[in-house]
Amino acid sequence: MTHTPAAHAPLVILIHGMGRGPRYMKPLRQFLEVRGFAVDLWSYRSLKHEIQVFGQRLAHDLNRYALDGGPREVHIVGHSLGGIVARHALTLGIPSNFGRVATLGTPHHGCQSALTFKLLSGVATPLAQLKPDPTSWVNQLARPDGVDIGTIGSDWDGKVTAAEAHLRGETDTIVGDSYHPFIVKNPVVHQQVLAFLTNGRFLPRGVAHALHERCVADAKRAKVAAKAAAKTDKVEAKAAAKEARREARAAKKRAGHG
């Protein structure tokens, strides 16, 4: 089902991680659109250039959104490298209509896996900038002033540890239980993203799980109701057709006696 947001609905820019594409963020897009947000799947060639190139392009697009989008708020959700791209863009300038940033499995202070996969740095240019040592590019990147940033890490990530997903000075943080590629598809993470973009705070884990379970239960009830309605419509249509045939036979019989 396609959901058309209101003209001035808040806009959320979804930024995929390294080696992924915009389609990867579609589950989160669908979740947010149902809840009234406009969503843009921002795309970049994540393996080809240094992070500064992506950040400069995003900064340009943020200014364009500010000029073209009217008074609506603009938020960013970045997965992995996408969160670093967002931070760099916002160090170049913060539009007046900018809202919040939520990052999912983002190595804000570098990650050990950048060293593990260093042999891939020839084909994945940003890897060299994500090393965990204090002198690496990512560890020299400033935190954008005056921007609410919420970080979501995972004990089960497999590529970026929960500790590496923290950002000094973050507005709020929470630790989940998703493997790195699947965090953007996790429905509990979706609830947390919604909470942070809306209120600037994450939910307690139990509340987020309960909200998800309620959504699942509501969806099941809606499905059952739809099936029941369809069955009722079918029965009623069948009865109407039967009555129409009976009337046709009666009319034919009357005509034969006329």
Q: Would you mind describing this structure in some detail?
A:
By secondary structure, the protein is of the alpha/beta class. It has 2 domains: 11-203, Rossmann fold (3-Layer(aba) Sandwich); 204-258. Helix content is 43%, strand content 14%. The protein has 7 helices and 6 strands, in the order E-H-E-H-E-H-E-H-H-E-E-H-H. The protein has helices at 26-34, 51-68, 81-91, 113-116, 137-140, 187-199, 205-257; strands at residues 11-15, 38-42, 74-79, 98-104, 148-154, 172-176. The chain has a 6-stranded parallel sheet with strand order 2-1-3-4-5-6, with helices on both faces. The chain is elongated, with a radius of gyration of 25 Å. The protein starts with 10 loop residues before the first strand and ends with a helix.
Key words describing this protein structure:
single chain; 258 residues; alpha/beta; Rossmann fold; six-stranded parallel beta sheet; elongated
The tally of helices reads: 7
Low-confidence region ranges: 218-226
Structural class, please?
alpha/beta
Q: In sequence order, what are the helices and strands, one letter per element? A: EHEHEHEHHEEHH
The domain tally reads: 2
Shape: elongated
- State the total count of DSSP E strands: 6
In percent, how helical is the residue content? 40-55%
CATH topology term of the largest domain? Rossmann fold
Q: Summarize the main sheet.
A: 6 strands, parallel
For this structure, what is the CATH homologous superfamily of the largest domain?
Answer: Alpha/Beta hydrolase fold, catalytic domain
Widest beta sheet: strand line-up: 2-1-3-4-5-6
Tell me the strand percentage band: 5-15%
Highest-level CATH class of the largest domain: Alpha Beta
Rg from Cα: 25 Å
CATH level-two architecture of the largest domain: 3-Layer(aba) Sandwich
- Measure the end-to-end span: 55 Å
Summarize model confidence as the mean pLDDT.
Answer: 86
